[in-house]
């Protein structure tokens, strides 16, 4: 059996470690969104597949027998494409879907359906901490008139599309204490984040609650119902059990 693990998240890394001492051959794939990704304990390819045809060719050429999708919850296009192509080729496919974050006592959260909606909840002159990644910056262009602080993992190669803002370079994991100290030092008045779920990114939300900051959470994209994965796994243990159930495959 040869498993393709679509990675790029902390959950994928934990799954990879859980498969290290098994007889299952695992190949991980990273999209290459960051310049120096954390290494995985299994053979890893980095970069795209060259579109749908390239992905089909890779699956056939590498003799992949099952695919476990542990990409980011907001990588909907990748997940939809993968589910559909695996269905075409008759390959077992499962998607790791970590539970969404839910508010606790003291949280001040507003869910937004799209980045353009954030402006409706943030007054001019506010200082906004944008923790949604660099790929979607253009979608927040209507935040002009606010000081926008954009956290990125790698030093940017393109200028910030906001006047009076700045990039904040930082690589996770972060702690509640470090996030709260950063927000205080920067004078943050609003936090904007994706509802990615998981433990790794929760610290910024806990820090916002500690400081009484309003949070705008971008809702997850909807998976196309006609290609929704028949196997949606919500824990690393679920993922390992699913792979184990296929271990008798050639």
Summarize the SSE layout with pairings:
Layout: E1 2-6, H1 10-19, E2 25-30, E3 44-46, H2 51-61, E4 66-69, H3 76-89, E5 93-96, E6 109-112, E7 127-131, E8 147-152, E9 166-169, H4 176-186, E10 190-194, H5 202-211, E11 215-218, E12 232-233, H6 236-245
Parallel strand pairs: 1-2, 1-4, 2-3, 4-5, 5-12, 6-11, 7-8, 7-10, 8-9, 10-11
Helix pairs in contact: 1-6, 4-5
| Order of strands, widest sheet | 3-2-1-4-5-12
What would CATH call the homologous superfamily of the largest domain? NAD(P)-binding Rossmann-like Domain
First and last CA, distance: 5 Å
Shape: elongated
Q: How much of the residues is beta strand, in percent?
A: 15-25%
**What count of structural domains?**
2
- Low-pLDDT stretches are none
Question: Helix/strand-derived class?
Answer: alpha/beta
What's the total number of strands?
12
Based on CA atoms alone, the radius of gyration comes out at 19 Å
Q: What letter string, H or E per element, gives the SSE order?
A: EHEEHEHEEEEEHEHEEH
Which CATH first-tier class of the largest domain would you pick? Alpha Beta
Total helical elements:
6
Which sheet architecture does the biggest sheet show? Answer: 6 strands, parallel
The average pLDDT value, as a whole number, equals 92
Q: Percent of residues in helical segments?
A: 25-40%
What is the annotated CATH architecture of the largest domain? Answer: 3-Layer(aba) Sandwich
The CATH topology name of the largest domain reads Rossmann fold
Enzyme class: oxidoreductase
Keywords: Cobalamin biosynthesis, Oxidoreductase
InterPro entries: Precorrin-6x_reduct
EC number: 1.3.1.54
């Amino acid at each position: 059996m040869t498993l393709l693990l679509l990675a790029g998240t902390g959950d994928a890394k934990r799954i990879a470690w859980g498969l290290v001492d098994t007889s299952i051959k695992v190949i991980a794939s990273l999209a290459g969104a960051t310049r120096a990704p954390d290494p995985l304990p299994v053979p890893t390819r980095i970069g795209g597949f060259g579109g749908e045809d390239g992905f089909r060719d890779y699956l056939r050429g590498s003799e992949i027998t099952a695919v476990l999708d542990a990409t980011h919850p907001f990588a909907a296009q990748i997940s939809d494409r993968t589910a559909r192509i695996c269905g075409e080729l008759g390959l077992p496919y499962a998607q790791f879907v970590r539970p969404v974050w839910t508010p606790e006592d003291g949280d001040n959260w507003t869910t937004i359906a799209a980045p353009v909606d954030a402006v409706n909840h943030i007054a001019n002159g506010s200082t906004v901490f944008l923790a949604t990644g660099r790929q979607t910056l253009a979608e927040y262009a209507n935040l002009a008139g606010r000081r926008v602080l954009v956290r990125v993992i790698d030093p940017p190669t393109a200028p910030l599309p906001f006047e009076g803002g700045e990039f904040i370079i930082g690589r996770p994991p972060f702690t509640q204490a470090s996030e709260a100290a950063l927000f205080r030092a920067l004078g943050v008045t609003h936090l904007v984040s994706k509802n990615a779920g998981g433990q790794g990114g929760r610290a910024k939300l806990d820090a916002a609650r500690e400081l009484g900051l309003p949070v705008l959470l971008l809702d997850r994209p909807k998976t196309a119902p006609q290609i929704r994965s028949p196997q949606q796994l919500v824990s690393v243990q679920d993922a390992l059990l699913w792979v184990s159930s296929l271990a008798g495959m050639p």
